Amino acid sequence: MATSSNPDTPTLASGPSVSRCRLDLVGCVAVITGASRGIGRAIALNLALRGCSVLGTCTNETSLELISSVLDSEVTRSYKDTARQRPSRLRIKGLGTIGEMDVQEVQHSLLGNIQTPVMIVDELVRRRLFQPDSRIIYISSVRSKQPWSRQLMYAAGKSAGESLCRTWAQAFGGKEEKYQFMAGTTANAVLVGLTQTEAVMNCGPDMVAEFQKEFFPAQSIPRFGQPEDVADVVGLLCSAEAKWITGSVISASGGGIKIG
Ligand SMILES: NC(=O)c1ccc[n+]([C@@H]2O[C@H](COP(=O)([O-])OP(=O)(O)OC[C@H]3O[C@@H](n4cnc5c(N)ncnc54)[C@H](OP(=O)(O)O)[C@@H]3O)[C@@H](O)[C@H]2O)c1
C-alpha cells in the first residue's frame, strides 16, 4: 500500500544499488504487513529503493533486527515502537483442514487474511491518510482459484481479499463524494504462486515436493517463484503507469493461474 507526501526517505544498509532504480516513489509512504521476511520484505526493499518510506509490521524482536538490516535506524525505531505497543503474533494452527477445524482456527484465519487488511484500510481512510492516486495491493494466492481440502479457510480468506479489492476500487476511484480526498486510488490483488520463502520451505521436503508436483505442471515457467519476482509485480502496480489498473486480480505465478 503506498500513499504520497511523507518526506522521510529511508536509506539502505544493504541490497541492490539505488542507481539501478528510478527514484519514482520519493515522498510516498508504504504500509506493508509482514515486512521482515519473505515476500513482504522483498516488497519493502523494492519500494524503499525507489525512495518510498516504509512502515512495516512483524511479530518479534528478532524480526525487527531483520528489518534494520534493510532500512536505516530511524525507520527501524518507529517499527520497534509500534511493535512494542501492539504485540500481535497470532497463533495460526492451520489453514483449514476440512473435518479437523475448531472455531479458533477459523477465526484466526479470517483475522489474518480479512479482518486485519480491512481494519488497516479503514483506519487510513478514517484518518484521511490516503492521498489521491494511492495504491492498495492485497496479496492473494493461487489457492483462491485452485482448491485443496487442507486449506479451506486460507482459500476462502484470499478469495474474500480479492473481493475487497473490487469494492475498494469502486469506492475510491473518484465517483463517491465521501472519498474524493483519495480519488484515483486503485485497489488490486496480486495472486501469488508457489514462492520460495521460509513459510513454504519450513513445511518440510515431503510437503514441498507435493507442492511442486501440484503447481509446476500448470505453470508456464516451471520453477519456484522468488520473493523478488512477486515484489516486482507489486512494484509495477505501485508505479504511476499502473494508474488505469484497478479492481483486478493480477497473477504472479509464472503462468500457474492464467487470468483473462
Ligand atoms: N510463499 C508462497 O508460496 C505464497 C504463495 C501464495 C501467497 N502467499 C502469501 O504471501 C504472503 C507472504 O507470505 P510469505 O511466504 O512471504 O511468508 P509468511 O510467513 O506468510 O510471511 C512472513 C511475514 O509475515 C509475518 N507473519 C507471519 N505470521 C504472522 C502472523 N501470524 N501474524 C502477523 N504477522 C505474521 C512475519 O513476521 P515475523 O518475521 O515476525 O515472523 C513476516 O514478516 C502471505 O499473505 C501468503 O499467504 C505466499
UniProtKB/TrEMBL annotation:
Keywords: NADP
InterPro entries recorded: NAD(P)-bd_dom_sf, Sc_DH/Rdtase_CS, SDR_fam
Top-rank taxon, per record: Eukaryota
Family: Belongs to the short-chain dehydrogenases/reductases (SDR) family.
Protein name: NAD(P)-binding protein
